[in-house]
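Long-time lurker. I teach an intro course on protein structure, and each term I like to show students one example going from raw sequence to a predicted 3D structure in token notation. This year I'd like something fresh instead of my usual example. Would anyone be willing to generate the tokens for the chain below so I can use it in lecture? Attribution to the forum is fine with me.
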Amino acid sequence: MQVHLVVAPVFATNCAVVVDADADADASRGADAVVVDAGAGVAATVTRLVAEHGWNVRAVLATHGHVDHTWDAAALCETFGVPLRVHAADAYRLADPFGTLGLTGGGVSDALRQALAGLGLRAEDYRAPADVVPFDADGDDGAGTIEAGTVRLRVIHAPGHTEGSTLYGLDGVLLAGDVLFAGGIGRTDLPGGDDAVMRVTLRDVVGRLDAGLEVVPGHGPTTTVARELATNPYLPPAG
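-- Reply from a regular --
Happy to contribute to a lecture. Here you go:
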């Protein structure tokens, strides 16, 4: 698998295009791919990147339902004729992204409003994807898999930042969304966040991950599980 990052101009959300470049597919058909976390302003770049390489996008995924990770999901789902996949516990956010952030009426935060305005966008311009296929990570260990074409991702339920926050794992890489950052973690003070639940996630989910995994967070630079276990003040110490 290959991961190609496109950084959104709004809140610098890391949008990942995951490509199964190793599949034994007909070269004329191109490799299968999925797009993870379609933040505001990434659609044109992602579409161009996909066209340049001849990839076949089989799904758009979200690590969670916050609008800075889903703004361009509708556009990309329409462009590629695919559904949005998101954990069932966060699917409700798609219909009312600002209300479920606690930013109702005229109360959209200045930071988000200004970031959108920089792209000529308004909160009223948001569109929910028409085709949403929720999933549950319902294995005994809170994990499961998603298959989209030849792309296969491990999905691990990791609540705390939101109810449905999900980690996506592939060959040596973890797409962590807003659960884990380099030197930090996602905030828990927004609606649906829960500090106690996050602490359990950090101990029982993140703390048990393979230390060799490279981590692509929802925002900011990449890191590794080993580095975060050794230095991140919010994580239990390794071992």
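Some talking points for your students: The two ends are 29 Å apart (CA to CA). The first helix runs from residue 43 to 53.
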